[in-house]
Amino acid sequence: xxxATTGLEALxxxxxxxxxxxLLGLGLALAQTSLERAESLFKAGEYAQAVLAYEExxxxxxxxxxxxxxxxxxxxxxxxxxxxxFAFDQMVRLFPDRYEGHFNLGQVYxxxxxxxxxxxxxxxxxxxxxxxEAFLGWxxxxxxxxxxxEAAEVLRKGLTPxxxxxxxxxxxxxxxxxxxxxxxxxxxxxxxxxTPQLAEAWDLLARILAEEGLKERALRELDRGLKAVEGKAxxxxxxxxxxxxxxxxxxxxxAYALDPSLWxxxxxxxxxxxxxxxxxxxLGYLLSAYRASPEPQVALALAAAYLRLKDYKNAYRYAxxxxxxxSFLKAQAxxxxxxxxxxxxxxxxxxxxxxxxxRGTLLLEMxxxxxxLALLRPxxxxxxxxxxxxxxxxxxxxxxxxxxxxxxxxxxxxxxxRQAAAWYNLGLALRGLGRxxxxxxxxxxxxxxxxxxxQALLRR
Length: 460
Fold this sequence. Notes:
Layout: H1 7-11, H2 33-43, H3 47-60, H4 65-77, H5 81-94, H6 99-111, H7 115-128, H8 132-144, H9 148-157, H10 165-177, H11 181-194, H12 199-211, H13 215-228, H14 234-244, H15 248-258, H16 263-275, H17 279-292, H18 296-308, H19 312-321, H20 327-336, H21 340-346, H22 353-365, H23 369-383, H24 386-398, H25 402-415, H26 420-432, H27 436-448, H28 452-459
């Protein structure tokens, strides 16, 4: 089962190296002119014409291995995957002991989103010829299907001394994904002793050590890695170090300067600006992160930044891009754009106090007073939020329940004495109770605190 990860950490997990390519292997002597022509078209990149030429060869001799192989690869490169699948399926039926057909069939199934069939094809290819690419393909399919433990077992089975650094890294990643991080540590140290410039290995090693409670050791290993790794690849190690540091911003800036396409660094810099109240300063970093990789959490941060800047159209757009996590921000943007019915619908099923408070506000403004009251009363009693209290009192005033409204507003003003809306609604409640002098004082207080409604009422 995959290790449970969320947010930024999950997104920093990398897949197995994408080094799997279709095998062509048309180095055999070509006796027939038509086969020579097909190969010539293939080498020139004229794949559509090559397909026709290979089909012509097969029409004359369906047992030509080279023609089946060339046809399948040409179709694959044209993106005609179902036709490529058929071509390689025919190939494995005619030549069941040839590695190339099974391996390429696995590649096609992988692209078609059929992991079970792909795994079977790669397994057969590995049985016929235990190549690195066959084991990597097999393990990659298993990982994508959520079978990380099985992927690690496959890679262990295929492990030999001559395997590449990419193979050893894939094994370590599979072990980590299978919740066997400590087992990946010796694999990573052996790998780094021979290939110290491999940033991904240092990054995974530090991550595992930190998760095992060895944060200081993880930081030391990252420093070792930064001495060995050069160029843009250093940015990933700086990012990992920032995640483990109490002062992440300088490290994030250095990582971002080294590799502006490293979206995680730009995202975290934008988030830091946003949390500091600098929405305008956050935008540049967040937009850069979004351009590099339009992840849902980046879209969510952009929506929050645009909301604070009162750019409600962009807030709505990015909240929508964020998917379900953006529903509340999308509702806020819709409300600000005057689309109250839409905002109310977007809030359905959202149970946070903030979402419920906005729902109460919408019901109140839409004149659905009893519904607003039924929602706002328990919400206020559970948290005693002044804003919720003001809306609850407004609903009570609109329903003519002035005495109840006064009690709520007195409590609100005891907690937030400069709440202009509370003074205004208190003035309305007191007027409803016939206490004109007290109402006048409350309205004057509201006007002094900037309530335009109170100011307009006093001028009448």
